[in-house]
Specification:
The complex is a heterodimer. Chain A is mainly alpha-helical. Helix content of chain A is 66%, strand content 3%. In chain A, the strands form three sheets. In chain A, strands 1-4 form a two-stranded antiparallel ribbon. Chain A has a two-stranded antiparallel sheet with strand order 2-3. Chain A has a two-stranded antiparallel sheet with strand order 5-6. The longest helix of chain A is centred in the last third of the chain and has 78 residues, at 687-764. Chain A is globular, with a radius of gyration of 32 Å. By secondary structure, chain B is mostly helical. Chain B has 19 helices and two strands. Chain B has helices at 10-27, 33-56, 89-107, 115-134, 138-159, 164-193, 198-207, 214-231, 240-247, 250-275, 277-303, 308-327, 332-363, 379-392, 399-412, 419-444, 451-454, 465-483, 486-508, and strands at residues 66-74, 79-85. Chain B has a two-stranded antiparallel sheet. Chain B is globular and about 70 Å long. Classes of the chains: A mainly alpha, B mainly alpha. Chains A and B meet through strand 2, helix 4, helix 5, helix 26 and helix 27 of A and helix 4, helix 5, helix 6, helix 9 and helix 11 of B.
C-alpha cells in the first residue's frame, strides 16, 4: 500500500497532460474530444485522490512526503543554505482538499461541457480548467510554502484567464462608459488585487525562511503523533530524531512508515511547523535578524499577519474582497469551481495548514476573527440588495468565506475545514444552478426573440422588452420569476442548495455553520474571550442575512409568474448540466453527516449511531495538530435555526409570489423605511468607489506625473538634453568645430556607406584591398583608444 | 608581472567563432542576401554550439577560472590576452550565445536595407560582448567594453526609428562618459597592482598583498561603479535607455536589453565586489537604495507609458534594480539570484522586445491605444505573449520568479541591508503585475474594435517561421529555468560562494 503514496505526483500530472493535449490538439479533437479529455483528466485525478485517501486510512493515517518525479530539487543554492524541493505531502488535510478539488471539479467539468457547448473557444476553456486543477492540486499538496505559492499564484493566473475568457464580451462599463472592456478589466482587477495579497504571503515566506532556515512544512523523517484525548497544548512527537526526545513527550514508534516516505536526504533541522511547536513549548525563544533580536512570539505574529494579508486576497476578505464580485464576469462553471468551491478557499487551507503558527499567535488570531466576522457581515449585507443572480451568490461566497476565516481566528480549524467542504458542495450547486437558469434565460430570450410578436396578446410587456432588446440581462433576477415550473430539476436542486446555505436542519450547511457558532460560543462564554462573544453575535446576524438573501433569491427566480418572455420560454437544461446538479444536491444533503457532533438531544442516537461522531474532525486531527472537536450546543442550534427560518419567512413575506409582477420593477424594499439601507447594500457600501477615489486614481495620477513631468520633462528633456547635452554640444563646438563637422556628423553614415562601397568596389578589385581596409579600421579604432589614453598614460609613465 | 602563456582553449574558440563568420561575410562580397542571413545565423549557432561544449566541460566543483587561454599581447605594459570562464561568466556567455541566434533569426524578415552590413555588426557585437564576459585582463576587458559600443551605435543609428541619430549619439556619449572614468580606474589600479590581470589582482586582494587606503578604494570603486551603473542602468542614470530602446531596431533592443545591460551588472560583480570588498560593504546600502528606488520608479513610470516599447524599456529599470539589489546584498543567495536574473531578464525582456517588434512589423505602430482584442486574431502570438509577460512579472514556475525570489531571500538575510529594502522591493512584485497586466489587457484583451487590427496575421510556421523560431526557444527556456533552476545554481555556487565569502570575511566581519 505504501507505494500508492507516490501516486500523489499523478494527481498533478494527469490534469497537466490533459491540459497539454487540449492545448496542442484541442482544435482537432473538437468539442467531444476536448471535453472528454478534460473531464477524463479530472475524473482520473479524482480516482487517484480516492486511492490516496484509501491508502491513508489503510496506513493508519500516517502522512507521507513524496518527491516529484524527474526534478527533485527546485531552488537549491548550497552556499546560501537554500534547498527548496519539489515535494508533495499526503496527509489527511491535503487529501481532503484534493478530494474536494477533484470531486467537485469533475462535476463542474461535466457541467461545463454542456454549458460551454457551441463556444468557439471550447477547447481553450478546458485547457484553462485543467490548468487550474494542476495549480490547485499543487497548492494543496505541496510540502513547502514555496510549492504552495506556485499553486497559489498559478490559480490566480487561471482565475485571470477564465474571468477574461470572454474578454471582448460587449458590456458597458457603468462609470467609464467604455464598451467591451468590463470582462478584461475584471480579470486584471482580480489578478492585481490578488497580487497585493501575494505580497503579504511572500513577505511571510521570507520571514519564515529567515526564522527557520527552511520552508518545508515537515521533514521526511518527522511523523506527528497525536493523543486525541489530550487537551491543548497538544502533545506531539518527532520520530527518528533522538535529540529532540526531551522537548516533546516522544512516542517513538518503529519506522513502519519510513518506507512510505521517499526521503529527500537526511536533514538536521525540523520542518517549520515542528520547529515552531518546539520553540513554543520551550518558551522564551528568540530569533536573531542580524543586529535585531526578536522574541519568537513577535516573529510569529508578524509572519501570521503577513499570511493573513495573503489570505484576504485569495479568500476575498476585507479589505481585498473587491475582486470576487467582479470575477463573476467569467463563465458560470468558473464561478462555481474557482470563485466558490476551491480557489477562494486556498486562504483558509493555508491558514489551517499553518495552524501551528496561528494557534500560538493570539494577536493574529484576534485580527483574523475580526477580519472574518466583519467580512461575513459586510458581504452578507451587500448580498441583500443585488439584482444579478450571480452577484448575490458572489457576495454570499465572500460572506461564507468570512465564516471560515472567523473559525480559523477562533482556533476552530476543524470547523473551518468542515464548512469549507460543505460550502464547496452547496455553493458549487448554487452557482451551477444559476448557470442553468442563465442559460435557460438566454435560450428563452432567443426563443422569444424569434417568435416575439406571437405572444403579444399574452404579455403586454413584450413590446417594451423587445424595444431595448440589446439591454436584456439574462442574469438580472428582475427579469426572471416563475421558473420553478419551467425548470423542475434545476429548481429542486437549487432549493436544496439554498436551504443548505441558509443552514436549515439537517442539510450540510446546518452542521458546519453550527459548529463554527458552537466554537464561538465556547470561546466566548466558557473561556471568556472577547473574540468569542463578538464572533457569536456577528455571525448569527450574518447567518440571518444569509437566510434572507437566499430566500429572496428563490422567490425572485423561481416563484411568482414569469416576468419576461425569456422567463416564460426558459427550457430545462441538458442532462450534462442537470446531472452534476443532482449529484451535488445529494452532496449538499449528505456531506454534513460526516461530522456529526456528539451530544445531540433526541435524535443523537440516530446520527451518532449511523454516521459516527466527529468523523471528519478525527480524520483531520491526524494532520492538523490543533484541530479539535466542538460540542453540540442544542440551544444555540435551535436559536440559529429559528433566526434563519424567521429571516426566510420575512423574505417570503416581502418577495413572495405576489411581489414584483413586472420586469425590472422596483424592489419592495427600495421604497419606504428601508430605502437608505437598501440603497447602501445595492451600492455595495461604495467600497469600489472608495478604492478608486483614494487608491487607484491617485496611483494613476502619480504614475503620469512621475512619467511625464519628472522622468520625461524634467530629467530626460531638461537635465539631460538641455543642460548636459547642449552644454556638451556647446563646449564641443567651441573646441572642435571643424573636426565635429567632418567626423561626428558625417561619421557613421559615411563609415557605413564606406564599408558597403568598399564591398562593391571589391567585387572589381582584388582582395588585398579589403585587408588594407580592415587594417585601417582596426588602426582607427586603436587610434581612438590611444588618443583617449594618452594624457593619462603620459602622467602615469612620467613621459 | 609575468604570466605563463597557455595554449588555445575552448573559451577562445567560442569567443572568436563569431569573427569567423564576420570575416567570411566581410570578404565574400558576392553572397546573396539569403546566404548572408544564413551565414550569420549559422555562425551564431556554431558559437552557441561551442558555448554548449564549454558548459558541458565546466566543472562545478572547481572554484576559479576554467578553460583559460593566456597569450602575450602588449608585454611592455603587462597587458595579456587572458580569457577564461568561471561559474558566473559561463552563464552570461550562454545567455549571449543563446540570444544572438534568435536576434539574428528575427531580423531575417525585418531588416531589408544594407543587409550585409547589418549582419556584420550583429556578429561583431556578439564577439565584443563575449569578450567582455570572458576577458580576464582589465585592458582587454576595456577594449571589448568599448567595442560593444560601436556596432550598437550603428545598429541604432542606421536601422533605428525616426530619431535614430539622436538616440545613437546619446547612447554612445552617455556610456562613453562612464567608461572614461572606468579607464582611469583601470590605469590607476593597474599601476598600483603592477598588472592588469583580473585573476592576479583578485588573488592579491584576497591574500592581502594588495590593499588600499579607504579613500583610494572608494575612488577606484566609484570609477568602475559609474561606468557599470550607467550601463545597467541604475536609477537615476537611466535617461539614455528609453531613447535607445524606442529607436533601436527590434534585434537591437533584444540585444540591448537582453545582453548589453548585463555588462554593467556583470562588471559590478567581477570588479566592484571582487576588488573592493570594503567599499562594496560601505556603499551597499546606498546602492541598494538606488536599486530599490529603481524597482519602484521603473515600474511606476512604465505603467504610465503610452508606447509599448517604451513601457518595456522602463521595466528594465525595474528588473535590473532587482539584480543590483541582489548583488549588493552581499549574500550568496542574492548574488546567485542576480546572476540567474540577468539570464532571466535577457530571456523575458528579450522576448518582450521581440513581441513588440513583431507587432510593429505588422501594424507599424507601438501606441498601446492602437491595439485591443488582438487575442482574437492572433491567438498563438497572444499565447506566447502571455507566457513571456508572466515570466517577466515573476509568476512562480517560470524563470523570473526563481531569480526574484532568490534575490529577495538574499536581501532579506543580508547583513548590510535591513528588512525594509526587501519589503519595498517586494512591493515591486505588485507593481510588476500592474504594468504587465495593463499592457497585456490593453493590447490583447478587450474588444477587437479597430479595423486595422482585424486583419492582423497570426504567427505561422509556414508563412514566416523565423518569428516562431525566435520565440519558441525563449518560451522553452522560461519553463526550464522556472521548473528546474538547480543546475544553474549548482554551476555558479562555487564561484559566487567563494566571492561572497571573501567579501564578507573582509568587509562585513571587519565591522
Amino acid at each position: 500500500m505504501e507505494g500508492f503514496y507516490s501516486a500523489v505526483s499523478l494527481v498533478v500530472i494527469v490534469p497537466l497532460v490533459g491540459m497539454l493535449i487540449n492545448l496542442f490538439f484541442g482544435k482537432k479533437l473538437g468539442e467531444k474530444g476536448a471535453g472528454f479529455i478534460a473531464v477524463g483528466a479530472s475524473a482520473f485525478a479524482f480516482v487517484i485522490a480516492l486511492t490516496l485517501w484509501a491508502t491513508l486510512v489503510n496506513q493508519d493515517y500516517a502522512p507521507a512526503i513524496v518527491n516529484a518525479p524527474l526534478i527533485h530539487s527546485w531552488i537549491s543554492v548550497p552556499s546560501a543554505g537554500i534547498d527548496i524541493p519539489w515535494q508533495f505531502r499526503v496527509d489527511t488535510l491535503s487529501v481532503t482538499m484534493m478530494l474536494v478539488v477533484t470531486g467537485v471539479g469533475t462535476l463542474i467539468h461535466i457541467y461545463a461541457t454542456g454549458y460551454m457547448h457551441g463556444d468557439e473557444r471550447f477547447p481553450r476553456f478546458f485547457v484553462y480548467m485543467n490548468l487550474f486543477l494542476v495549480f490547485m492540486l499543487i497548492l494543496v499538496s505541496g510540502n513547502n510554502l514555496l510549492v504552495m505559492f506556485v499553486g497559489w499564484e498559478g490559480v490566480g493566473l487561471c482565475s485571470f484567464l477564465l474571468i477574461g475568457f470572454w474578454f471582448d464580451k460587449p458590456g458597458k462599463h457603468p462609470k467609464e462608459g467604455t464598451v467591451g472592456w468590463s470582462n478584461s478589466n475584471a480579470a486584471r482587477k482580480a489578478f492585481i488585487v490578488n497580487r497585493i495579497g501575494d505580497f503579504g504571503l511572500l513577505m511571510g515566506i521570507f520571514l519564515t525562511f529567515w526564522t527557520f532556515g527552511t520552508l518545508d512544512y515537515y521533514k521526511p523523517n518527522e511523523v506527528i503523533h497525536l493523543h486525541h484525548d489530550d487537551a491543548p497544548p497538544p502533545v506531539f512527537a518527532v520520530e527518528g530524531l533522538e535529540a529532540e526526545g526531551e522537548h516533546a513527550e516522544a512516542t517513538v514508534t518503529e519506522g513502519e512508515h519510513g518506507g512510505a516516505e521517499a526521503a529527500h536526504g537526511e536533514s538536521e533541522i525540523h520542518g517549520i511547523f515542528t520547529q515552531a511547536e518546539l520553540w513554543f513549548e520551550e518558551g522564551n525563544h528568540h530569533v536573531k535578524f542580524g543586529s535585531i533580536d526578536l522574541d519568537f512570539d513577535v516573529v510569529i505574529t508578524l509572519i501570521t499577519l503577513f499570511f493573513l494579508l495573503g489570505a484576504t486576497g485569495k479568500s476575498a476578505q476585507i479589505p481585498l474582497f473587491v475582486w470576487l464580485p467582479d470575477a463573476m464576469a467569467g463563465p458560470t462553471p468558473v464561478s462555481a469551481l474557482i470563485h466558490a468551491a476551491t480557489m477562494v478557499t486556498a486562504g483558509i487551507y493555508m491558514m489551517v495548514r499553518s495552524n501551528s503558527f496561528f494557534y500560538n499567535a493570539d494577536l493574529t488570531s484576534f485580527v483574523v476573527t475580526i477580519v472574518g466576522i466583519s467580512t461575513a457581515l459586510a458581504a452578507g449585507f451587500m448580498a441583500l440588495g443585488q439584482w444579478d443572480i450571480k452577484k448575490v451568490l458572489a457576495y454570499s461566497t465572500v460572506s461564507q468565506l468570512g465564516f471560515m476565516v472567523a473559525a480559523v481566528g477562533l482556533g476552530a480549524y476543524a470547523a473551518a475545514m468542515f464548512h469549507l467542504v460543505t460550502h464547496a458542495f452547496f455553493k458549487a450547486l448554487l452557482f451551477l444552478g444559476s448557470g442553468s437558469v442563465i442559460h435557460a434565460m438566454e435560450h428563452g430570450h432567443h426563443h422569444a426573440h424569434e417568435h416575439g410578436h406571437g405572444h403579444d396578446d399574452e404579455h403586454d410587456e413584450h413590446d417594451e422588452e423587445h424595444h431595448d432588446d440589446h439591454e436584456f440581462d439574462p442574469q438580472d433576477m428582475r427579469n426572471m420569476g416563475g421558473l420553478a415550473g419551467k425548470m423542475r430539476l434545476t429548481y429542486i436542486t437549487y432549493l436544496i442548495g439554498a436551504l443548505a446555505l441558509a443552514g436549515i436542519f439537517p442539510l450540510a450547511g446546518f452542521w458546519s455553520k453550527d459548529e463554527i457558532l458552537a466554537d464561538a460560543f465556547t470561546i466566548g462564554f466558557d473561556e471568556g474571550e472577547l473574540k468569542g462573544y463578538l464572533a457569536l453575535a456577528v455571525l448569527i446576524t450574518a447567518a440571518a442575512m444569509t437566510a434572507f438573501y437566499t430566500w429572496r433569491q428563490i422567490c425572485l427566480v423561481f416563484y411568482g409568474k414569469p416576468r419576461t418572455a425569456a422567463a416564460e420560454h426558459a427550457p430545462e437544461s441538458v442532462s450534462a448540466m442537470t446531472t452534476p446538479l443532482a449529484i451535488l444536491a445529494v452532496g449538499a444533503l449528505l456531506v454534513g453527516f460526516m461530522n456529526v457532533p456528539n451530544g445531540i438531544p433526541l435524535l443523537g442516537w440516530l446520527f451518532e449511531g449511523i454516521f459516527g461522531e466527529h468523523r471528519f474532525t478525527l480524520f483531520l486531527e491526524e494532520s492538523v495538530i490543533h484541530a479539535h472537536a466542538g460540542d453540540f450546543n442544542a440551544v444555540l442550534a435551535l436559536l440559529a435555526t429559528g433566526i434563519a427560518l424567521g429571516a426566510m419567512y420575512a423574505a417570503h413575506a416581502i418577495y413572495g409570489s405576489k411581489a414584483m409582477p413586472m420586469p425590472m420593477e422596483k424592489d419592495p424594499l427600495e421604497d419606504g423605511q428601508f430605502q437608505p439601507l437598501f440603497a447602501l447594500s445595492n451600492a455595495k457600501l461604495y467600497w469600489d468607489e472608495a478604492y478608486f477615489k483614494y487608491i487607484v486614481y491617485p496611483f494613476q495620477g502619480a504614475a503620469r506625473f512621475l512619467a511625464n513631468t519628472i522622468d520625461w520633462d524634467f530629467w530626460h528633456n531638461f537635465v539631460h538634453d538641455r543642460i548636459i547635452g547642449q552644454g556638451f554640444q556647446g563646449a564641443a563646438d567651441v573646441i572642435s568645430q571643424p573636426i565635429d563637422r567632418q567626423v561626428v556628423d558625417k561619421g557613421f553614415m559615411s563609415l557605413a556607406t564606406g564599408v558597403l562601397a568598399a564591398g562593391s568596389r571589391l567585387r572589381k578589385t582584388q582582395t588585398g584591398y579589403v585587408r588594407t581596409y580592415a587594417l585601417s579600421l582596426m588602426m582607427g579604432a586603436l587610434l581612438v583608444i590611444v588618443i583617449i589614453l594618452l594624457p593619462t598614460l603620459r602622467d602615469l609613465l612620467g613621459i | 608581472m609575468q604570466l605563463e602563456t597557455t595554449g588555445v582553449s575552448l573559451t577562445s574558440v567560442t569567443l572568436f567563432a563569431p569573427m569567423v563568420g564576420f570575416f567570411i561575410l566581410l570578404f565574400l562580397t558576392k553572397l546573396s542576401d539569403e546566404r548572408i542571413k544564413w551565414g550569420a545565423l549559422i555562425t551564431s549557432l556554431m558559437t552557441l554550439g561551442f558555448s554548449i561544449l564549454l558548459l558541458a566541460q565546466f566543472k562545478s566543483d572547481e572554484i576559479g577560472l576554467q578553460s583559460e587561454h593566456i597569450a602575450e599581447w602588449i608585454p611592455t605594459f603587462g597587458i595579456y590576452y587572458h580569457v577564461g570562464i568561471d561559474g558566473i561568466s559561463i552563464w552570461l556567455v550562454m545567455l549571449t550565445t543563446f540570444i544572438m541566434p534568435l536576434a539574428i533569426l528575427i531580423s531575417f524578415n525585418m531588416i531589408h536595407e544594407r543587409i550585409r552590413l547589418y549582419y556584420l555588426f550583429m556578429l561583431l557585437i556578439e564577439f565584443a560582448m563575449l569578450g567582455v564576459f570572458v576577458a580576464q585582463d582589465m585592458f582587454l576587458f576595456y577594449v571589448f567594453w568599448e567595442l560593444t559600443l560601436v556596432p550598437m551605435y550603428f545598429l541604432i543609428g542606421i536601422w533605428g526609428g525616426d530619431e535614430r541619430r539622436y538616440a545613437a549619439v546619446k547612447f554612445f556619449l552617455y556610456t562613453m562618459a562612464g567608461s572614461i572614468l572606468m579607464l582611469l580606474a583601470i590605469l590607476w589600479l593597474g599601476n598600483e597592482a603592477g598588472t592588469f590581470d583580473v585573476k592576479v589582482i583578485t588573488e592579491m586582494v584576497q591574500s592581502g598583498v594588495l590593499s588600499f587606503s579607504t579613500d583610494t578604494e572608494r575612488l577606484l570603486f566609484l570609477g568602475f561603479f559609474l561606468a557599470f551603473a550607467i550601463k545597467v542602468p541604475l536609477w537615476p542614470l537611466h535617461s539614455w535607455l528609453p531613447d535607445a530602446h524606442v529607436q533601436a531596431p527590434t534585434a537591437g533592443s533584444i540585444i540591448l536589453a537582453g545582453i548589453l545591460l548585463k555588462l554593467g551588472t556583470y562588471g559590478l560583480i567581477r570588479f566592484n565586489l571582487g576588488f573592493f570588498p570594503n567599499a562594496s560593504a560601505d556603499f551597499a546600502p546606498w546602492i541598494a537604495a538606488l536599486a530599490v528606488i529603481g524597482i519602484i520608479y521603473g515600474a511606476w513610470v512604465a505603467y504610465a507609458q503610452t508606447d509599448v516599447k517604451k513601457l518595456v524599456a522602463y521595466t528594465s529599470v525595474s528588473h535590473l534594480g532587482f539584480v543590483v539589489l541582489g548583488i549588493f546584498s552581499l549574500t550568496s543567495s542574492g548574488v546567485q539570484g542576480a546572476v540567474l536574473q540577468m539570464v532571466n531578464h535577457g530571456i523575458s525582456t528579450g522576448g518582450l522586445f521581440a513581441l513588440v517588434g513583431i507587432l510593429y512589423d505588422r501594424r507599424h505602430t507601438k501606441a498601446i491605444n492602437a491595439f485591443g482584442g488582438i487575442w482574437k486574431v492572433m491567438p498563438l502570438f497572444s499565447g506566447i505573449a502571455l507566457v513571456i509577460s508572466l515570466s517577466s512579472m515573476g509568476l512562480p514556475s517560470m524563470n523570473g520568479f526563481v531569480g526574484e525570489f532568490t534575490i529577495l531571500l538574499g536581501s532579506a538575510s543580508s547583513d548590510v541591508l535591513n528588512i525594509w529594502f526587501t519589503a519595498v522591493a517586494t512591493l515591486g512584485v505588485i507593481l510588476a503585475a500592474v504594468y504587465t497586466l495593463f499592457m497585456f489587457n490593453k493590447v490583447f484583451m478587450g474588444p477587437l474594435d479597430k479595423k486595422e487590427n482585424q486583419e492582423l496575421e497570426d504567427l505561422t510556421w509556414s508563412k514566416n517561421w523565423t518569428e516562431l523560431g525566435a520565440l519558441v526557444p525563449l518560451v522553452i527556456m522560461i519553463f526550464v529555468i522556472g521548473l528546474y533552476p538547480s543546475p544553474f545554481f549548482e554551476l555558479m555556487d562555487g564561484s559566487v560562494g567563494d566571492l561572497v565569502n571573501f567579501v564578507n570575511s573582509v568587509a562585513v566581519a571587519g565591522k
